[in-house]
């Protein structure tokens, strides 16, 4: 009985259940919604959100109110830089990934330094960084062509590669495995949970807390930059606010995947399921014939229901 | 005579806005050849309504001769424009009409923009078929006007059924996702009305579903898209909202500052204070010209159009 | 005598863990009542149920014969019950005054805060502790700036300010030094004289026999024995607590001073709180750090461990000069540090016991990859050395009682097989049985060649374990005791010797 | 004796971080004055205050929520919802003076109700604050669009003329600010503020001390809703119309203002007065950038840099 209850309230199980319910709802509302190829397309969209959520997960698990609101700006920056570097040439994809990832990794590191060395609260630091990166984007994108995705990149994102799955899904699965290995099979992973759970205790067991946390923000920037590259592969070209729409969803995906915003808890599989659930919800809502406000109401209400299921704090009176 | 003119732009989310200001700057500089020196005071940043009102207040306090604004709200500026007018400042809105009787509007008729797009769609479909629409930011005045215009055209074709109306916030990636969802839900779509830059996203989804030959959808006018359009043989048509509208507004403003009087009966629009500019329309027949005009421009460059000083003089007595 | 409070057949489960199976307690008017038992036997849980912060599953509570349901701390307060929380109930960001009167602020007529009355009342309360509380203790000081003992004093005052008729002190003396305890006991006696009843939880048997009237003993979630203090003895009580007697090892026969070369030598090390301390430590030696609390003993250990690095002086390990400016340096050189403040310094809250043990070993051994399966056995063994009571390595650390958690944190360091062990009041909140195990283990480690620096706030612990004791005063070594000189009398003398 | 733990001057400063914010504000004001010589004239000052007031008010409400250890991302949507409710009620009742009062009353009730919903979800049902207020923000915004699908519905001239005018020789906007300051001064002297700090500082300890934790947090959210409603009524006076998309940047700017004012985002320390100063600093940064006449494409970057520096500086001082 207890085991059943704890299984049912396990975030992973809940996220999976929500996904199944949403799929069923979608299929009931519009037959064909849960068709194989449509699911693949939904997964592609989930994968984009899921990649940002990977960095967001690390930062949140790393604790001290960890959150990265600058991922949107970093996605835009990654997309614009990648577009410019690639300029539609397959040969330049690698360089584009390098430039986009490098720049956003640096931005992330700066976030990390602000959080660790200057002790600026992450929400504030990354919010401030958003303004700076957006400003920089406006400066650099002016006059320079925003660039185009290379055809191979677009095919990677949009067209089947193996078993009818686009390359991006393979990539996402790979990232999922890598994240698991990182978090559960490396010393660094254990250290991330430790600093997220109790920073002082982590220091007293010899962990370089600041360096690790700085790295986490760097990785979050890196993931965002790579997401930017994928986004330009998805949309073909980029503009300065292309990443904005991913910021809060990346946080929500992480939360409904069972990663506590208090830090030191949860894993990336949850965030992956969260990203899928959120994408599904958006898409089920699109297929409803409703006015915009009606969709918003349902979207908000479903988020609240997900919170009701398991995003709750413990009782003060145990 | 020299003038100080304030330019206010309250949203910087797309290159369209950058091009808008750059063209206005160029137009201002061009006045020097006519012996008029124009000093621009530019505010261009992401602000909400009260932030933009703040910028307008600063311009009033700075003592500009005219304010040209791409407004974040159609109605919210009424009191502040009244103050500007009281201070003898000319206010010209562009890109979105404003309700203030103390301002004039120089730009396209957003209702007509939507009307034209959907009229093209209805005609291309031969007045028959299933249509979905992908609109911009719900509640945004330009969007609401475009939606209204589109509905008007579609209503005139009784054979057309609107399956669903959605919003993708003028965001290309969201446009692409929305189109994907619509394609999955409605296998029988014949036509799509989609605004602006979202069209590129929608077309990408159509292409991914292998339906470019079966679906007619509106398009957009950035060079990138024009190239895709011609390469992919899409059936498309696009109303143009030229980024040059602010330059046009500036030219009108300077003439007005020089003391010219407007002709009778040129004002129209919802609030009776609008001078509408032509809306260029590109379809498969005129596509080749547009592609040629965009040759050598950067990918984000948008087909533009601006009122020359001479054209502008036509509005004056 | 009147029976004031009666708790009967109280049960409490946390998921699968049964914290209380049959908790009971009878408290008379105006008595001081000891509540004793090994770590994790349910003392704190029972107290929290009485104070309304934990909800019981079944059982009855009655006050003056009337059954009561206590739905929360406010209801408890209304019934005249106040609890000194083992983990304290203070808000770090608020001042001493604000904390003491939190929720019962003096108000002016219009309902505004009466700042003057607050300050006056606070100063009255803290005046008693002025002598023993140490520097920086004032009405306006933020609790976050106070030392652990000062915080305990604030918690005591906070409880007193509520003017309760039943006060529960859950390990209120754990961080207090001798003088502070003496003052606290004086207050307890005054309260008793006023007819207030106290429940007093402690792991120090001397305190029990010094101050309490009666004793209730718990074991494994159930109340198992009651004594009148004056009519029993230590042996009987301990027997009730642990089932069979595992008393603290008596002071062993003096061992011959090892003649091995020193493992650790400090030469005039110092930082903000430690001045010019020199010492030398041989393999196999256990050296105690004695003296009143807060004289720099912890700071010395933390300095040596790199947590609050020394700014002057030199450290030599096995003859070689080393630089230790952060804990990882120390760990790499085989130094381990066990803190007494587990919640703050040790616990990875919400993480498994496995992870809590692993942390130090990973820092020492620096494996790139981790294979939990291969480590399980080793960590199980480490946890078993102190007969820790736990469900399994993957259970969360929070499912253990305070004392059992502390055992895990000791196990964490044992797993690194340290050659220098720094113990910073490590037995805080550990029960007698575990303490005895722990001491035996420390001995064994020393015999196997480890060098141990041991600070304890309890003189008895120092005397029973150490080969010699350095007595601290104001951040410096004020004296050294060894061999025949190692007596409680000498230790007290030395501690007060140069104190102001 | 042993030395005192912290330098008393620094300790005093730590409890009054707003002093630092005040210095920053003065510095920005001076720069603004140099760039804009007519700054210190009654009209221009009033004009500036009119612009800053909505953020000031929202930031005050946000400061209580943050002091209690929570956060409110929905305040911007509350502003929009209150605005459309107010203008719709005024229009529905025919636009006379009684209609105006009814509209204001309805607006304030709406703000309070939104705050109550947030508070009940977060403190009552123990939902996670960030995600919950993000969700309720979407819901409130959706409701605003339901009530008023697109901007419009002018309010009667009595409303906005009064707001833009003067009473007893002082501009109404100044009276609003004074009133807000009086309210925060009153709240600052009530036990509530200590209780709220305790709840934000260490929730378990606050509970164990017998504080009604949930009620206190709910009250903080209600205050946030109330001040958002005040801000919305001011914006309605400034814009004289309804706009369902109003206030979209207010959530983040109010949080920045609170942090600039020296509050810890984790809760337990900070003050509403600091938030007022923080909001003014944000406003002055915008002004300075305007009058410094940076090329337009650099404006966002410079604004971002200065804001980040200010935030970093404020936090640094608060932490020392
Ligand atoms: N919040 C909780 N969740 C799960 N188990 C708990 C919780 N609190 C206490 N327990 C369990 O209840 C039992 C009793 O714990 P309690 O804290 O009452 O012990 P205690 O007698 O006070 O011990 P100590 O002397 O170590 O303080 C322990 O086994 C503990 O693991
Ligand atoms: N942050 C500080 N700055 C300056 N002096 C301090 C500070 N903290 C403590 N002191 C003082 O320095 C002396 C040494 O105290 P210290 O805290 O190092 O001893 P300790 O053994 O670590 O005590 P504790 O049990 O409090 O940890 C004490 O007199 C104490 O009052
Ligand atoms: O056409 C759009 C214009 O109306 C809006 O204001 O800015 C973005 C453009 O895409
Ligand atoms: Mg206990
Ligand atoms: Mg100590």
From TrEMBL, chain A:
GO CC terms: plasma membrane
Known function: Part of the ABC transporter complex LsrABCD involved in autoinducer 2 (AI-2) import. Probably responsible for the translocation of the substrate across the membrane.
UniProtKB keywords: Cell inner membrane, Cell membrane, Membrane, Transmembrane, Transmembrane helix, Transport
InterPro entries: ABC_transp_permease (IPR001851)
Protein's cellular compartments: Cell membrane
One matching Pfam family: BPD_transp_2
Transmembrane annotation, as ranges: 38-62, 69-87, 93-113, 120-141, 161-183, 215-234, 246-263, 268-286, 292-311
Name of the protein: Autoinducer 2 import system permease protein LsrD
Protein's membrane topology: Multi-pass membrane protein
A molecular function GO annotation: transmembrane transporter activity
Source organism (scientific name): Devosia enhydra
Subunit structure: The complex is composed of two ATP-binding proteins (LsrA), two transmembrane proteins (LsrC and LsrD) and a solute-binding protein (LsrB).
Top-rank taxon, per record: Bacteria
Automatic annotation (TrEMBL), chain C:
Stored Pfam families: ABC_tran (PF00005)
Record keywords: ATP-binding, Nucleotide-binding, Repeat, Sugar transport, Transport
Highest taxon of the lineage: Bacteria
Boundaries of every ABC transporter domain copy: 5-245, 256-499
PANTHER family linked to this entry: CARBOHYDRATE TRANSPORT ATP-BINDING PROTEIN MG119-RELATED, GALACTOFURANOSE TRANSPORTER ATP-BINDING PROTEIN YTFR
GO MF annotations, alphabetized: ATP binding; ATP hydrolysis activity
Naturally occurring in which organism (per UniProt): Devosia enhydra
Protein name in the entry: Ribose transport system ATP-binding protein
Matching SUPFAM superfamilies: P-loop containing nucleoside triphosphate hydrolases
Entry's family note: Belongs to the ABC transporter superfamily.
From TrEMBL, chain D:
UniProt-recorded Gene Ontology molecular function terms: transmembrane transporter activity
Subcellular location: Cell membrane
InterPro entries, per database record: ABC_transp_permease (IPR001851)
One matching Pfam family: BPD_transp_2
GO CC annotations, alphabetized: plasma membrane
UniProt keyword annotation of Transmembrane present: yes
Keywords in alphabetical order: Cell membrane, Membrane, Transmembrane, Transmembrane helix
Mode of membrane association: Multi-pass membrane protein
Keyword Transmembrane: yes
Chain ranges passing through the membrane: 17-35, 47-67, 74-93, 99-122, 129-148, 168-188, 218-239, 245-265, 272-292, 298-318
Protein name from the UniProt record: Ribose transport system permease protein
């Amino acid at each position: 009985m207890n085991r059943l209850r704890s299984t049912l309230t396990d975030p992973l199980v809940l996220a999976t259940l929500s996904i199944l319910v949403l799929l069923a709802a979608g299929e009931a509302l519009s037959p064909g919604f849960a068709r194989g190829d449509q699911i693949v397309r939904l997964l592609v969209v989930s994968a984009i959100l899921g990649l940002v959520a990977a960095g967001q997960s690390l930062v949140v698990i790393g604790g001290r109110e960890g959150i990265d609101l600058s991922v949107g700006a970093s996605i835009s920056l990654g997309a614009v830089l990648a577009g410019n570097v690639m300029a539609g040439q397959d040969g330049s994809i690698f360089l584009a990934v390098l430039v986009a990832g490098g720049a956003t990794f640096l931005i992330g590191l700066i976030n990390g330094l602000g959080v660790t060395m200057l002790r600026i609260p992450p929400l504030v630091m990354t919010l401030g960084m958003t303004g700076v990166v957006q400003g920089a984007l406006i400066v650099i994108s002016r006059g320079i062509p925003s660039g185009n995705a290379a055809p191979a990149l677009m095919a990677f994102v949009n067209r089947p590669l193996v078993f009818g799955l686009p390359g991006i899904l393979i990539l996402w699965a790979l990232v999922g495995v890598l994240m698991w290995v990182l978090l559960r099979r490396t010393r660094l992973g254990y250290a991330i949970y430790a600093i997220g759970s109790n920073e002082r205790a982590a220091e007293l067991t010899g962990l370089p807390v600041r360096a690790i946390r700085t790295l986490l923000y760097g990785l979050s920037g890196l993931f965002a930059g790579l997401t930017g590259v994928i986004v330009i592969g998805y949309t073909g070209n980029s503009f300065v606010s292309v990443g904005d729409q991913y910021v809060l969803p990346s946080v929500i995906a992480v939360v409904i995947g069972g990663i506590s915003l208090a830090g030191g808890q949860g894993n990336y599989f949850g965030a992956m399921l969260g990203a899928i659930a959120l994408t599904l919800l958006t898409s089920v809502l699109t297929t409803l014939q409703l006015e915009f406000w009606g969709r918003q109401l349902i979207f908000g209400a479903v988020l609240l229901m997900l919170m009701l299921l398991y995003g709750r704090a413990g009782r003060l009176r145990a | 005579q020299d003038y100080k003119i304030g330019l206010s732009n309250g949203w910087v989310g797309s290159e369209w806005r950058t091009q808008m200001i750059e063209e206005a700057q160029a137009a201002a500089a061009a006045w020097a050849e006519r012996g008029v020196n124009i000093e621009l005071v530019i505010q261009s940043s992401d602000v909400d309504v009260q932030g933009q009102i703040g910028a307008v207040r600063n311009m009033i306090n700075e003592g500009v001769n005219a304010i040209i604004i791409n407004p974040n709200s159609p109605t919210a500026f009424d009191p502040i424009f009244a103050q500007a007018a009281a201070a003898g400042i000319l206010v010209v809105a562009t890109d979105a009409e404003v309700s203030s009787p103390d301002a004039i509007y120089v730009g396209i008729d957003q209702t007509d923009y939507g009307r034209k797009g959907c009229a093209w769609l209805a005609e291309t479909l031969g007045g028959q078929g299933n249509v979905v629409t992908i609109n911009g930011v719900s509640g945004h005045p330009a969007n609401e006007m475009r939606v209204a215009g589109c509905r008007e055209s579609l209503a005139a074709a009784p054979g057309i059924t609107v399956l669903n109306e959605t919003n993708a916030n003028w965001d290309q990636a969201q446009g692409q996702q929305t189109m994907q969802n619509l394609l999955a839900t409605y296998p029988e779509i014949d036509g799509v009305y989609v605004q602006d830059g979202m069209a590129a996203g929608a077309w990408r989804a159509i292409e991914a579903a292998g339906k470019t030959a079966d679906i007619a959808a509106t398009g957009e006018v950035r060079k990138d898209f024009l190239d895709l359009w011609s390469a992919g043989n899409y059936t498309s048509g696009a109303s143009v909202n030229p980024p040059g509208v602010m330059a046009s507004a500036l030219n009108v403003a300077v003439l007005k500052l020089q003391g010219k009087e407007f002709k009778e009966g040129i004002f129209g629009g919802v609030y009776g204070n609008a001078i509408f500019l032509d809306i260029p329309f590109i379809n498969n027949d005129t596509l080749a010209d547009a592609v040629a005009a965009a040759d050598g421009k950067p990918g984000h460059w948008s087909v533009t159009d601006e009122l020359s000083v001479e054209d502008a003089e036509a509005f004056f007595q | 005598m009147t029976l004031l409070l009666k708790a009967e057949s109280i049960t409490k489960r946390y998921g699968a863990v049964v914290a209380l199976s049959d908790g009971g307690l009878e408290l008379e008017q105006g008595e001081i009542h000891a509540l004793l038992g090994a770590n994790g036997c349910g003392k704190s849980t029972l107290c929290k149920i009485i104070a309304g912060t934990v909800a019981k599953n079944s059982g009855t509570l009655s006050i003056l014969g009337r059954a009561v349901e206590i739905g929360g701390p406010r209801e408890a307060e209304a019934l005249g019950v106040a609890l000194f929380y083992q983990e304290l109930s203070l808000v770090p960001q608020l001042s001493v005054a604000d904390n003491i009167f939190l929720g019962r602020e003096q108000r002016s007529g219009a309902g505004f805060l009466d700042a003057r009355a607050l300050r006056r009342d606070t100063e009255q309360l803290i005046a008693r502790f002025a002598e023993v509380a140490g520097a920086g203790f004032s009405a306006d000081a933020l609790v976050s700036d106070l030392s652990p003992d000062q915080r305990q004093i604030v918690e005591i005052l906070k409880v007193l300010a509520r003017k309760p008729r039943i006060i529960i002190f859950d390990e209120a003396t754990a961080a207090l030094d001798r003088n502070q305890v003496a003052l606290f006991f004086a207050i307890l006696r005054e309260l008793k004289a006023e007819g207030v009843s106290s429940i007093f939880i402690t792991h120090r048997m001397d305190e029990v026999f010094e101050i309490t009237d009666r004793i209730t003993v718990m074991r494994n979630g159930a109340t198992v024995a009651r004594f009148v203090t004056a009519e029993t003895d230590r042996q009987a009580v301990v027997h009730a607590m642990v089932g069979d007697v595992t008393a603290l090892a008596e002071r062993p026969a003096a061992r011959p001073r090892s003649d091995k070369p020193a493992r650790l030598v400090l030469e005039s090390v110092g930082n903000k709180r430690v001045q010019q301390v020199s010492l030398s430590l041989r393999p196999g030696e256990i050296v105690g750090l004695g003296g009143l609390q807060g004289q720099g003993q912890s700071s010395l250990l933390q300095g040596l461990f790199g947590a609050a690095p020394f700014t002057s002086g030199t450290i030599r390990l096995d003859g070689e000069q080393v630089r230790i400016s952060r804990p990882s340096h120390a760990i790499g050189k085989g130094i381990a540090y066990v803190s007494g403040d587990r919640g703050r310094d040790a616990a990875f809250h919400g993480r498994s016991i496995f992870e809590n043990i692993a942390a130090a070993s990973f820092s020492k051994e620096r494996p790139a990859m981790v294979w939990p399966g291969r480590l399980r056995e080793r960590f199980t063994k480490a946890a078993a050395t102190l007969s820790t009571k736990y469900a399994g390595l993957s259970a969360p650390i929070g499912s253990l009682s305070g004392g059992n958690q502390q055992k895990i944190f000791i196990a964490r360091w044992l797993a690194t097989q340290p050659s220098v062990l720094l113990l910073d009041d490590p037995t805080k909140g550990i029960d007698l049985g575990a303490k005895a195990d722990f001491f035996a283990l420390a001995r064994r480690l020393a015999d196997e060649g480890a060098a141990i620096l041991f600070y304890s706030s309890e003189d008895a612990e120092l005397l029973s374990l150490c080969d010699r004791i350095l007595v601290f005063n104001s951040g410096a070594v004020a004296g050294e005791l060894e061999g025949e000189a190692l007596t409680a009398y000498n230790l007290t003398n030395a501690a007060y010797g140069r104190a102001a | 004796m042993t030395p005192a733990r912290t330098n008393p001057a620094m300790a005093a400063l730590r409890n009054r971080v707003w002093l630092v914010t005040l210095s920053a504000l003065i510095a920005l004001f001076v720069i603004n004055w140099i760039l804009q010589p007519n700054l210190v004239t009654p009209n221009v000052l009033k004009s500036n205050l009119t612009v800053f007031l909505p953020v000031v008010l929202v930031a005050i409400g946000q400061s209580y929520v943050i002091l209690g250890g929570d956060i409110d991302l929905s305040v911007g949507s509350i502003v929009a919802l209150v605005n459309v409710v107010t203008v719709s009620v005024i229009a529905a009742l025919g636009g006379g003076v009684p209609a105006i009062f009814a509209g204001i009353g309805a607006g304030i009730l709406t703000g309070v109700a939104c705050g109550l919903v947030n508070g009940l979800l977060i403190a009552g049902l123990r939902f996670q604050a960030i995600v919950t207020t993000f969700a309720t923000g979407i819901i409130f915004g959706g409701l605003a669009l339901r009530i008023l699908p697109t901007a419009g519905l002018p309010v009667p001239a009595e409303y906005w003329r009064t707001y833009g005018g003067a009473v007893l020789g002082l501009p109404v906007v100044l009276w609003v600010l004074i009133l807000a300051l009086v309210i925060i001064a009153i709240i600052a002297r009530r036990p509530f503020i200590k209780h709220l700090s305790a709840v934000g500082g260490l929730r378990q300890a606050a509970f164990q001390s017998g504080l009604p934790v949930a009620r206190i947090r709910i009250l903080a959210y209600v205050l946030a809703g109330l001040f958002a409603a005040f801000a919305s009524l001011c914006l309605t006076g400034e814009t004289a119309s309804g706009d369902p998309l109003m206030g979209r940047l207010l959530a983040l700017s109010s949080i920045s203002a609170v942090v600039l004012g020296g509050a810890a985002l984790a809760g337990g320390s900070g003050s509403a007065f600091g938030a007022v100063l923080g909001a003014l600093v944000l406003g002055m940064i915008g002004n300075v950038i305007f009058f410094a006449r940076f090329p337009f494409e650099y404006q966002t970057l410079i604004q971002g840099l200065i804001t980040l520096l200010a935030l970093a500086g404020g936090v640094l001082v608060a932490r020392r």
